[in-house]
Design a protein that fits this description.
Blueprint: H1 2-11, H2 25-62
Length: about 60
C-alpha cells in the first residue's frame, strides 16, 4: 500500500506547483531587458558615489 501511495504521488505532480503562470521566452527576454535598463544605471551611480566617497576619505586621511 505504501508503494502504491508513493507511485501515485510521483506520477501526479503538477507541472507548476506554486501557481505562477508560465512566461514565454520572448517575455522573459523583454523582462530582462527592461530590468537591466533600470538597474545598470542605478548600479553605476552607486559605484560612482562610493568611489568619490572613498577618494575623499583617502584624501582626508593623508592630508
Amino acid at each position: 500500500m505504501r508503494g502504491l501511495a508513493l507511485n501515485f504521488a510521483s506520477t501526479h505532480q503538477t507541472k507548476n506547483p506554486l501557481g505562477f503562470s508560465e512566461v514565454g521566452e520572448n517575455k522573459q527576454l523583454l523582462i530582462a531587458i527592461v530590468v537591466s535598463r533600470f538597474f545598470i544605471p542605478l548600479l553605476l551611480q552607486i559605484c560612482q558615489y562610493y568611489s568619490r566617497l572613498n577618494l575623499q576619505l583617502v584624501c582626508t586621511v593623508f592630508s
